[in-house]
Every structure is written in C-alpha cells, then in structure tokens.
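Worked example

This section walks through a single chain of length 583. The input is the sequence exactly as stored; nothing has been trimmed or padded.
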Amino acid sequence: MPGGSISRVSEPNAGSEPAPYSLGDFCIDEYKPIKVIVIGAGFSGITAGVRFPQKIPGVELTIYEKSAGVGGTWFNNKYPGLACDIPAHCYQLTFEEKRDWSAFYAPGPEIRQYLENVAEKYKLMRYIKLQHEVVHAQYDEPAGKWRLRVRRPNPDSGVLEEIEDSADVLVTAIGSLSRWRWPNIEGLHDFKGELHHSAGFDPNENTWQEVAEAWKDKKVGVIGVGSSALQLVPALQPRVQKLVNYVRGKTWLAVPFASNSFAELLGRDPKSAEDYKFTPEELERFKNDPEFYKNFRFTLETDINSLHSSTLRGSPMQMQAREAFRENMVKKLARKPWIAEKLIPDFPVACRRLTPGPGYLEALCEDNVDFVSTHIKRITEKGIETVDGQHQDLDVIFCATGYDTSFQLPFKIIGRDGLDINDKWKPHPVSYLSVAVDGFPNMFMSLGPNSGVGSGSLLALIEYQIMYAVQATAKLQRERYKSIEVKPEALRDFDQYVDAYFPKSVYSEKCRSWYKMGQEEGRVVGLWPGSTLHALKALTHPRWEDYNYELADPVQNRMYWLGDGQTHNEKTLTGDSASLMPL
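Given that input, the structure is written out below as tokens.
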C-alpha cells in the first residue's frame, strides 16, 4: 500500500473500541521549537544558514565549521592560480547575484569574498561557530535527538577541548572533496626544499603572487594533471626559472565552456574569446544594464545545461566533443607535438572530470617548461627521480594529487542500533536521492554520494538539496513527528536505478577518476545518475511516502497535529487573519 508509515507506535486492534481522544492544547500553527545542526560552512552550509531561518518558524540553528573562516573549499584552498573552472555567472547562488566578477573564470579569492559577503548580508555569523570540528555524532533513539561532540579551542586558554551539543535534525554539508592527502611516493618527505600539497598551500597573510616572488630563480615541480595542476602550471610558469610537470595519466582539456557565447554576447572579436578578464566597460554594462546581465547569465546557463547528451556513450555530441577537443589540444601543442601524444587519452570525453584549463597547454609549450610522462620512482633530498633513472634537481615541489575519495568520513556518525555510516558505506556509499540514508533518522546530506554533476552548475543542486532538508524539517515540525527516516526499500530502489543508469554513460568507461573512488573501473559514486536539470526535478517535490515516521506525542492518532481547531492569530486575536480568507 503506498504512503509513508507511522512506525513504532502501537495501533488498536481491529474491532476494539478506539481509545479516548482529546484535542491538543495548541494551535495548528503553534509549532514546537526545533533545533538544526549543520556541519560545514561552505556553499551548502551558507545556503542552509539562509534558508532554515527563512522557512522554519522558531528554528534554533547552529553551523559548525572546523576552519577559521567561512567558504569551505574556497577558504581552505589558496594555491597559485586557484579559480572557478565553469563560468562565474553560473557559479553563484540563485538568490544572490553578483554582477562584478572580474573574469569569466573567477579567481578563488573572489569566490571566497562572495561567500563572506553572503554570510555578512544575511547575518549568518550568529549561527556559525568557526574552529569547531564535529568529531562524533550519534542518534539517540529514545529521545529522537542527535548527540554531537565538538572539538574547539577553549575561548580563554586556547587549549583544545570537547563540548557536547544536540539537535532534532542533522545536516551534513562537508563536501565530497574536502580531505586532501599526500601521494604515495617513496621518499616524499625526504625532500629538503619546499614541499606543498596544492590543497594545503598557505601563503599566510600574503597573496600567492607575493610568495611566488621568492621562486623567480627556482626550479619548481608540479605532480599531477587534475584540475588543480591545470591551474598551477600556467600560474607558476611565468614566475619561475624552470617548471617541470610530472604527468602519470592522460586527460581531455575542453574547448572552454561557452567561450563562443562569451565572445558573441560581449560583442568581441572571436579571436579574443580566450581573454577571460572583463573590461571596465563590460563590467559597467553588467552593473547598469539589467537586461544585458540577465541575458548573459541566461545564455551561459542554457549552454552549460545543454551538454548532458555529450556524457552518453556514442552520442553524436560525445563524438563531436571528442573531435573538437582533440583538434584544439593538437593546435595548442603545435610547438611541442610529442606532448599531445602523451596527453590526449583514448577514453571518452568527460570520463574523468572535464575542465577547460585555460592557459595550461600554452604554458607547456613555453621554453622554461618540461613535460615528463615517465613515472616517478622516488623523491630524493634534492628533487625527483623517474623510473628511467633520470633525476631533476628542484627547489619547490607541488603535489596536485587530489583528495580522499573513499567517502569514508573522518569522524563517526552512528545511527540506529549502533550502525556506523562508514560501515554502511562499504564497499561503496549508498543513499536515497543523494540526500538520505536508511538507519539515520532526521539526517540529510548536501553533496553526499552520487550528488556531483558532470555538466551544469553544482550550486543549483546544492540549493535544491538544502531545500529538501528544509522541507523535511518543516514536515517534522508541522506534523509533530519525532523522526523521519527513509525506507530501506526506497534506498534499494534508487540504488538499483544508479546501477542501471551509469553503464550507458561515459563515466563507467575505463579511466581513473574520483567519480569511481579513484579507481579505473567500478561503481560511479560521485555523480548524480542523470543531468543536473533531472536532479532538480527529482528533488523539487519530496516523495514523503518513501519515509517512515515516529510520532512525537504519546497519542495514538496521526491527526493530533491539527491541534485545537484554530490558528495562532485567531486564538490570540493578533496578526493578519484576513490573509487566510479566500480571494
């Protein structure tokens, strides 16, 4: 029988006299206070900080952030060349537009400032607790509460201590790529020069450009060919004596997303399509011409949301992309054509995360750059030795080698019956629509398993995932439930859908990707099984029948939430009662 189940509440026997029933002594809209804890203050946590107070009456909201500032990955990452790799106008919250992005691909510090501005505008620091790291969360089944332990520096002494907190609803907003790791290379920490991981680089109070001043006479090695390396290499190349890029795998570099639309909309010569900085005149037009700005943004979003069919195996758009990208890479590597042979892959476009990498191929062709595809044997005190016996002396090494993609959380989340979510997520993570997991009541996720996007804007999906959690919280509060928990069979059905979807996509082809937990082959756990627009449609209207519920009140009547038959305004003769009348 369809419909959500009221579980763990005894029902009267058929034919027996119904138990005496008394109306509740509250109005239908006289909501009980509800507490929500969010883990993380990146895009997801900031969106939660805006939406929960807007939509949930009387909510008590706390957002725990382990870092010293808001912004998530945009606070923690400060490496040279850090930038957004999709158009900035498509990488902003729908409710908070920004018209003065300095470049088509916005620099990282600008995105961080944007997030800080949103937090300031909506006064979110009253909810956010910085340098507070959640180290343990456990569901208290009798109470229907989440109990958390949080590590923080003592406000007076600065010594680390643990405090406890509890909530009715827990929202994880920690991101799927938030924990970087060193590569497993022999001798890595024997190196006597400067050793950095791209995600751990910290210029302290300086800009990376100021730090790089000391490298102008240095030899610098960059290990990797992922998104970070593609930004590091062109950023460092003109600022160092010599740069060596060590590349183990292959990757496609996209023709820059929406670059033709970019030039056409701005009225530029197509030859300048890859000059991604906006001119003062263009910025002034964005600021003062709302229709121009709206059309620019609408056209770009239409373009990036029209790419989904390129991710399907053998589709005409996939074949066209492969040919166009190959032609573009060969053309840009004409000065060093041997690099194209080493870099252009055999696997389909988008099997690995696709990025345009502005300036990367051009940087490889500069005289002070070497491209090394021979595998690294070890790192020595003075540099890097490859398996062919060649050794390169280096002064600085950057490891742009990625993140922990195992979906094994760095702290325990314990659900019903002592189940650890890390155990639940072995051998691979599972979820219901990427937002919920059975056995973990009153817990919702943003950027959980299968929630990344292969094309389109990730921020739109983040907003919908947060609004899903908000809607679930509103239902919990309005209908006086103790718990809301996805049914195991609903999760299994979504899991079956995921398994059936990806074989028709290029993501399941053989290539090493974080989409598959860093493996060449295996289950795709990083991406939504469909297009971005498909995901938004799926999350817009929750299927409440896919959940089980527990009543909060000791009353055997699911309509107890109707209260005493009146609204709060009627009962207190306050507020606007006329707005309730039909027009």
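What to look for: The two ends are 37 Å apart (CA to CA).
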